[in-house]
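@here heads up, posting the sequence + SMILES for the zinc ion run so it's all in one place. Ping me if the SMILES looks off, I pulled it from an old spreadsheet.
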Amino acid sequence: MRTSLLALIAALLWNSGARAEGLEALSGQVTLVMEADRPLPSKAIQSMREEMARLFGASKVRLQWADRGETGLGFEAEGIVVLRLKGECRMPDLPMPPDERGPLAWTHVSEGVVLPFSEIDCASVTRAAQSALRGGERSLGDVFLGRALARVAAHELVHILLQRKEHVPKGIFRRGLTARELVEQFHEEDERGRIVLDAGGKPAS
Ligand SMILES: [Zn+2]
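bot reply: prediction finished. Complex structure tokens:
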């Protein structure tokens, strides 16, 4: 098991051109295997995929999606990254105060290696997203939930692709995104709504 994980990571790194810098340096096939405890609203899934595609649009990463249900024992795909959605990823009917005690998501690390396995805490993300919505946005809750999940997932995926535990000062790969930053529709050139990687964000070679 461990050997195959390391082989996977090696394959991911091999695909991440070590010479280019920043987001453009990221390349290769990534198959995101979604493993949700409970089914997500279809609008949230659609919105999540669109936002992930937008966030990685400037990179050469080719994102594919698979559901855990489709992936039996013999499932094979390039660059598998497991994304586990813990709890219920569904906007609560009544507003809930944001729960800021725990992280929104985390990625497993073993002996210094960032593993291709992230977990998202649905309760934290849904509460944060809902608390950040304003006025008419609330009627499109699932769309905003999908966007928030995408930003959290993209952040974790960058940790995995770069094999990097440290953050950058700006954008989605910053530490401690605010609830509003998870849902805001930023202008395309606004760094707060993009993955911004400096030269230090180069993949390890
Ligand atoms: Zn992080």
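MO: Residues 155, 159, 167, 175 surround zinc ion (CB under 6 Å).
MO: One more: The chain has a mean pLDDT of 87.
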